[in-house]
Amino acid sequence: MKFTGDLNYFEDMVRFFFQFHDPTTKKRQGNDVGTQYASVVYCYSQAQFDIATRVRGELQQLLDDGKLNCYENKTVCTDVRMATKFYPAHQEHQDYLANNPNGYCNHRIRFKEWPAIPSAKDTTILSTSPLQ
Q1: How far out from the chain centre does Cα 91 lie?
Q2: Core-most of 28, 47, 61, 118, by most CB within 10 Å?
Q3: What percent of the chain has pLDDT over 90?
Q4: Residue 63 CB neighbours (<10 A)
Q5: Which residues pair with 40 in a beta bridge?
Q6: Three-state secondary structure call for residue 40
Q7: Domains parsed from the chain with CATH numbers
Q8: Parallel, antiparallel, or unpaired: how do β-strands 40-43 and 79-82 relate?
């Protein structure tokens, strides 16, 4: 399969990736542990790398601000890397849930819509001053 979408579509895919699995567990997904279960976004261009890094940062901000509480931990461990050689999963892992409808999988939609993140211009800093 070759990705042929534009950068907006790539950003949508990255957001879905973070909605569908737990990016806060290092080298683990549910009961599955090891480097092969690490959370990583592989990018084929600098633009994709920049998008994935920005979206990962937005997710961390949402966790820090307490707007999401659907993961095991509070720190995003997902790595963003430039792609190198692609190795497809072994055949027994292809279409796993389609072939094993009652099989184990901890992947699910954890939140349906990406919460809004206020920009710096939307945030008012309140300060107090002594009465004169």
Answers
A1: 25
A2: 28
A3: 39
A4: 19
A5: 79
A6: strand
A7: 7-122 (3.30.1060.10)
A8: parallel
Would you say 26 and 38 are in contact if contact means Cβ atoms under 8 Å apart?
yes
pTM, two decimals, is 0.77
* Biggest alpha carbon–alpha carbon distance for the chain: 75
Rounded-to-integer distance, Cα 42 and Cα 27, Å:
15
CB 77 within 8 A of CB 24: yes
Q: What does the alpha-carbon distance between residue 86 and residue 95 come to, in Å, rounded to a whole number?
A: 18
Measured N-to-C along each axis, helices 7-20 and 46-64 cross at an angle, to the nearest 10 degrees, of 40
pLDDT band at 2 (very low <50, low <70, confident <90, very high): low
| Helix ranges restricted to H, 1-132 | 7-20, 46-64, 96-99
Amino acid symbol at 110: R
Place of tokens 């790398």: 49
Amino acid sitting at position 67:
K
Kindly tell me if the per-residue pLDDT of 33 is higher than 80. Answer: yes
